[in-house]
Model the fold of this input.
Amino acid sequence: MNVQTLMQLLQEIESEDPVDFSGLPFDADDLRQLACINVAEIMERFREDNPAEDREMVMAATVTRLILENMVLQARLAILLQEEG
Done:
């Protein structure tokens, strides 16, 4: 999978559930591309020497970690907003 394909898939996913980039001092498309580059590199690294099932498990673990990290960040943001209000 290449970066362009990932960008297209990401855009499709974001059309239903957009990421909120407001307030960040970064270009949203640059951040998207950086994320896609990172995922493409992970996939390429594991493609070479591992069977498909192992690659799938690594990707599932990676997605799980990202979801967990997102949940923690959202919880911290909610706590900060609650403390301010």
Notes: The chain has two domains: 1-49, 51-85.
